[in-house]
Amino acid sequence: MTAGTFTCLRKAQRWFSELPLKPKHLDRAFVIGSAAALVAWMGCITLVWARAMDASGGAILLTLSATMLSLWFAVRLPGKAARFMQRLLSWLKVHETLAVELAAASMPRVGTREARALLRLLGAMTILAVAGALVSTAVAYWIGGLIDWLARWFVLGRWGWLVARFCVQLLAMLPMSLGICVVFFAGALVRRGSGRDIYATICRDWTWAIALGLTALGVAWWLGLSLLGLPVLVGALLIISSVALLQRKKVSLRPPPPTARPEQAGSQRSLAWSIRGVFAAMAVSFVIQMRLLSDVAGVGLEGRMCWAGLSVSLLAGFLGIVDHKSSAPGRAQGLGAIIGITAGLGLQVALVISCLLSPNIAAVSAVLAVLAQIPLMAMAAVLLSRQRRNFARMGAGARTYVSQICLGLGLGFLACLAAGLLPEGRAVMLLSAIAVLAAAPIYGIAITRLTKRQVLWALWGAVLLCSLTVTVLASLVAIRDGGRAISPGVWLSAMRTGSDSSAPMRYLPLRDPWRSDWVRRRQDAIIASHPGLWWVVASSPQDVPQGLHRSVRVALSSPDPSALHLSPSAWGVRQTRPDKFGFLLTAQIAPERFDGVLLAPMEADHLQAWRVYNLTTLRRCFRHVHPGGAMLLRTQASGRRLFEAIRVARTFHSAVGSGWFIAQFNRDRIDLLLAGPVENVSRPPIRPGTLVIRLKNLWSGELDCRAIRILQPAGFSRRSIRPWALLLTLQDIQRRQRAQDDGS
């Protein structure tokens, strides 16, 4: 077997060596591959930060904004990075003037010796980036304990914790950001372009790399790969490929850039603000699309990452087409692209929302919304190509351009976070879109001297503005007439259906969970046996205990208060304190202890259930329980996703140590109550058709599974099990348990 494997490897190596790959193709493959690996690694670090913080979508938005702003700061570092590069270049025996050219990502004509030195520089910078990424990963992994420790000593409000966590992540991401920046600039030297737009090639390469990295991250999440093991594998591959690059002898000589002065006059500052605004709008659009895929289409994280990768690959393809044209798009084309993107995104949002309001046309609306992504990316490519080429003709280098991109993306993610936290922010976004559709045609009329074109600008601008306004008003009327109410929050969206205004709101995507009265009575009995202060986390009044004795007081929390506004009086609860932070943040930083905790945030088969039922979160919740207190978790599941409830039970057992599995089936639906520890919760009575099992007796045979961990996605362990098969298995376990108890 070993000899056969060795023979296959030799044949593969011979086949690869015989491929007619030119040196420039190898350069491009290394630049795109290394950049894609670093992008995927950064995505893994984002999820590692989610584990260290509160695992919510708002925490991920904060991490993305901190990452982009750390990149912006790292790009602008002029001192120590430049001195380090000079020392490295002198060690590589390259002329010292290349350090100055490296900062501008451009250089004069070089010979074979200098080109080979540039390859060694790229390999060395890649190894440096791996080292920085390892440092940032280690800090993100261990920082959670420090945050928990700080929460015991500092009492900050919601905004105070946001600022503190943002600053911590900003500093922690600097090593990786600096590594990514030097890899980009070293790649810009190897992959420099010709003409006035000298950094177009490296920008397109990195756009392809971002698409590949996002897709790889989605596939890794779907496969269930470890988010700590994947960076180690990526780092090893990068180091191996960098060492191979250091020993390469064949090089490609790119044409030198022109030495003439910039052709185009204008203000770099105004164009820089324009670039920031465009990329901030792209970040907002990206977040809106991800939320629509999650809330309406029910697409998981792996699907959303693949969608983002596909969109960016379309953008890269259209950028290649536009960049290869002899002249940059004009002002009229840029304005048209702005108008088209704004109107197209509004149309896309309207089509997706219509899937909620009119299920009869949901399929057609979904197909049209997906197809709308193609012209959106084409128009975005026109706008980005115009801005970059004009920026290059003004004499700005790649460093300045990348800094504007990172600053714009960081501000865009922060704007999305603020819009979720502040209800007025959503109205500001809508008014901004309307203002763009109103101002762009006016500016188009001003720059056009022909009367015919001015009339066309005014006509089509008015049509698009009226169409967007009518669409918004029609959607609001349809929502009101249908008795619906939609509340988008930071990371969850809630919706009320039906004509009854007092009906509870539910998180999207909508589920129809079944709740058992018997399970409800068992829950209330356990709470009554532990009088005192209880922390209840719920998203429906049906999960809140009712008719409790005065000795039981309740502190109510919501998974996402910005989406689901709690109404203790309407839910029949005597609230002891307001919900300041929300469930996940309270579990991490709140110093209070409770006599009991009841968790009922959402169904086990909900799209976002991994955020609230992971092992880290449940352990943090159990820390809030007084010695002798009880911890309860109630959830539901249906269809073939019943095994998700078993995985939640496994996670509860790992966090608490022991407990009871209390459940009842209704056809293909289950209502589950987990209670523990066993020494603090007496065994509930059993009646026909119900299940009461010790958690330690469940993990055998088909039901053996692993706990839900953020850094270890479900992957292929996400099983599909038939309801009757699961019921028979649980009944058999219960019979064996009763026989064992009777024998003892």
Q: Which strand order does the major sheet show?
A: 5-4-6-7-9-8-10
How far apart the termini lie comes to 53 Å
Helix share, percent: 55-70%
Average pLDDT across residues? 83
Structural class, by secondary structure, is alpha/beta
Uncertain runs with pLDDT below 50, 5 residues or more? 15-19, 95-108, 259-263
Radius of gyration: 29 Å
- How many DSSP H or I helices? 24
What proportion strand? 5-15%
Main sheet makeup: 7 strands, mixed
Shape: globular
List the SSEs and their pairings.
Elements: H1 2-17, H2 23-52, H3 57-75, H4 80-91, H5 97-104, H6 112-153, H7 158-172, H8 174-190, H9 200-223, H10 229-246, H11 268-295, H12 301-323, H13 331-357, H14 362-371, H15 373-393, H16 398-421, H17 423-447, H18 451-481, E1 485-488, E2 493-496, E3 506-507, H19 517-528, E4 532-538, E5 552-557, H20 583-589, E6 594-600, H21 609-612, H22 615-622, E7 625-638, H23 643-656, E8 660-666, E9 669-676, E10 690-694, H24 723-743
Parallel strand pairs: 4-5, 4-6, 6-7
Antiparallel strand pairs: 1-2, 2-3, 7-9, 8-9, 8-10
Helix pairs in contact: 2-3, 2-6, 2-8, 2-9, 2-10, 3-7, 3-8, 3-16, 4-5, 6-8, 6-10, 9-12, 11-13, 11-15, 11-16, 12-15, 13-14, 13-15, 13-17, 13-18, 16-17, 17-18, 22-23
Task: Describe, in plain words, how this protein is organized in 3D.
The protein is α/β, with parallel strands linked by helices and 744 residues long. It has helices at residues 2-17, 23-52, 57-75, 80-91, 97-104, 112-153, 158-172, 174-190, 200-223, 229-246, 268-295, 301-323, 331-357, 362-371, 373-393, 398-421, 423-447, 451-481, 517-528, 583-589, 609-612, 615-622, 643-656, 723-743, and strands at residues 485-488, 493-496, 506-507, 532-538, 552-557, 594-600, 625-638, 660-666, 669-676, 690-694. It starts with a helix and ends with a helix.
